[in-house]
Amino acid sequence: MPTYTLAAAVSAEIDIRKSRFIALAIPVAARDAAMRELERLHAEHPGATHICWALLAGGQSGTAGRPILEVLRHHEVDGVLAAVIRYYASSSARADSCALTPTPSPARCSAPSVSSVG
């Protein structure tokens, strides 16, 4: 089965019910590079309510990261970190199922590997 990757990072933004979503797909060489990209995203978006992400070598388990992972699998993408950054319009609406720690690291953000493509 062939796999695909990206030549460059891509992003899109949308507002839904007073929340702002920023979707990103970032080519990465390995899991360590993906963790560095997550650290960069947290630094660039300190006010974000949460950042959900997936990487075929692993990702968040049991959260919004799971549907993101399924999109990567469906499109047979390898070596791509997919992330969705969410900003709630008000701080009273902060209950969510995908809150990450302020600084991602392999020990704090990783779950057991889901599967590898290739």
Strand order of the largest sheet: 1-2-5-3-4
Distance between the termini: 8 Å
CATH architecture of the domain at 10-90: 2-Layer Sandwich
CATH superfamily caption of the domain at 10-90:
Impact, N-terminal domain
User: Helix and strand succession?
Assistant: EEHEEHEH
Largest sheet: 5 strands, antiparallel
* Average pLDDT figure: 73
Kindly describe this structure.
With 118 residues, the chain is an alpha+beta fold. The protein has a domain at 10-90: Impact, N-terminal domain (Ribosomal Protein S5, domain 2), CATH 3.30.230. The chain is 24% helix and 27% strand. It has 3 helices and 5 strands, in the order ββαββαβα. The chain has helices at 31-44, 65-74, 106-109, and strands spanning 10-16, 19-27, 50-55, 58-59, 80-87. Strands 1-2-5-3-4 form a 5-stranded antiparallel sheet. It starts with 9 loop residues before the first strand and ends in a 9-residue tail after the last helix.
